[in-house]
Amino acid sequence: MSELTLTVFRLGMVILLWFFVFSVVGVLRSDLYGTRISRRGQRRAARAASNRPKAPAGIAAPLPTGAPGAPGTPGAPAPASQQQSANPAAPQGRTGAAYRGGNGIPSLLVVTEGRLAGTSLPLPAAGVLIGRNPECALVLDDDFASGRHARVFNRAGVWHAEDLGSTNGTFLDGARLTTAQPLRVGATMRIGRTVIEVRG
Prior knowledge:
Blueprint: H1 3-33, H2 40-51, E1 108-113, E2 120-122, E3 128-131, E4 138-139, E5 150-155, E6 158-163, E7 171-172, E8 175-176, E9 181-182, E10 188-191, E11 194-199
Parallel strand pairs: 3-4
Antiparallel strand pairs: 1-2, 1-11, 3-5, 5-6, 6-9, 7-8, 7-10, 10-11
């Protein structure tokens, strides 16, 4: 075997070794820190909101045709990280058991504490998956949330909350969820530093 062949072989082995090391580091990082949350959608939503004509005080500006949440738009609602609409029927500054608006049936999730405070998400018939992964309907920018942390779903006409085996747990009105529990208007869910209020 010539010296050139031996050198090329050694170089190839070194490259393979480093490739293996980087692969292992990438897998460990994904397991420890979860999926990185993209902010592109948030920046696009912010630019669209700044370019949208402002309505007079007390009157909500209509959403442009084809926008997420606009009337007649087909498909599932956009992720809540791109929806910063406020609930006009809900009084500001009242959280937890103090709020008893609406018809008593949960229809809206509102983030009241955490990095996404002010974000609201209507409850679709298919339910809501909550976590750090981009596939979730409510994508949390919270270091203490798991990729698929919890879900809110409808069972026999009653909305329930369920923890999906998360590392740090899900707390409903201060009690840790171990099984699926019914939700009421005014209930609060805590996931890490994020608090989500159920509104009607």
